[in-house]
Amino acid sequence: MDGGWSHSGRGVIVTQELLLGIDAGTSVLKAALFDANGCVHAIAARRTELSTPRAGWSEVQPYSAWNACVEAVREVLAAAGVHGQRIAAVGLTGNMIGAWLIDGAGEPVRDAILWNDSRTRSLIERLSLEQPDLLATIFGISGCVLETGCTLPLLSWLAENEPTSLERARYVLCCKDWLKFRLTGTVNLDATEAAVLPGSAHKRSYDDILLEMFGVGRYRHLLPPVVEPDTVVGGVLSDVAAATGLRAGTPVVAGAGDVPSNAVGLGAVERGVAFTILGTNCQSCLVFDRPTFEPAQVGLLFSVPGGGWLRAMTNVAGTTNLDWFADRFCCGDATTDGEARYDSLEQLAADSDVGAHGIIYHPYLSSAGVIAPFIEPTARAQFFGLRPEHRRADLLRAVYEGVALAIRDCYTALGTPLREIRFAGGGARSRLWGQILADCLAVRVLVPAGTEFGARGAALLAGVGIGIHESVSRASSVGLEIAHVYEPDSGRQAMYNGIYQVFRLLREAVLPAWQRSAELAIQ
Asked: Alpha carbon 412 to chain centroid distance?
């Protein structure tokens, strides 16, 4: 086999070479080294400084992200004690959509606009009035609700407000594709990005109808060529090699956006596999073998490397709920970070029981309200059922349960029975949350070993690109270990069925009150 790779009798790949996965988060970039079986050897992280020039804007200086990438790669090689010659290939992933404009010389035209930017809100409202079928058409083609930080509305906003920026631009990229350009000098977008600009879910590419609806058809030339995520697009440039410690010419693979890359890293690329990533926000996803557009006008649809699609239902606030409660009500009882923080909070919550003695919590702790399984920007978090005898432990238990109930709400909307779900993200470090999730959803919950699943997915795609793995499916499953398994308890499951009914009734009944509060500006 090429490159000295060989397979053991158990299908494990034997090689001394490593794969580098780069994961560019919104504010933290991570570089991680993996072996061919997806086992992590070292991790390095660097922060990128975001800016908010105006309320609702979210930008980053492109070279800030690039410098973070260079430093993280150099550090991860040093941490692992390996020479760049041992790196067989590089894969990338990162926060999706946004607008990273470069000119003909490859220099940034302006600061990059990120996915969480909301400057296009009024533009989208105006276009929706002028074209009443706009949002329905977008969903019917892309399978995604329109986010304000999507690339097409940002191009439309720039055309109206900064036309000189578009006149100077040669390409509009997404985050990882800017880094990929700096690594290799090549310009492209992968299929997972192109389909959510918004684009076409079926074609896994751009859609000219949507370009015209946003009035940016004349800027079609700014959109780069589209390639599959496991395509080798170039090699590391010599000056980049000198700066990072990588070998010049090291193959670089196109990569995928953060959600699809996490699917690869979690071994979740086959039909029927579900996974929940419980972090600052919460993504609950289910993989299909064809594009699916149900429920209508809710959620996102991503193409998955290797040929599938996944529906993603997003709770805007995930672990934010627990952090908020700990900061406000636990004083010094839960101030440590990481697993120690979760341990201390679980000790507090252990004083309560299933159902939190009658308290129900809606975890809509965001100024954006809720976007799945229903869209309501005025929705707010709330406790229901308080009595004089309730204690802090009951409130805390209700927070854990409220997030799990909201996850069940999202999966219920997808309408497909689940056998099990894979559970990752910061929240997966909590054993209490893992068990509550299993009981609440009545499915087995599997927690894969490891943490950097986005970077793992990027590294495994790099392995596919250079032929270490014969397919994305095989790469995704190799070496994946399960750290914890939570089995549902039938007694607790029955209790949560009743609690979930009340959870749904409450959020439906309180909707007019949320909306009226917003009208009165008392939220």
From this structure: 20
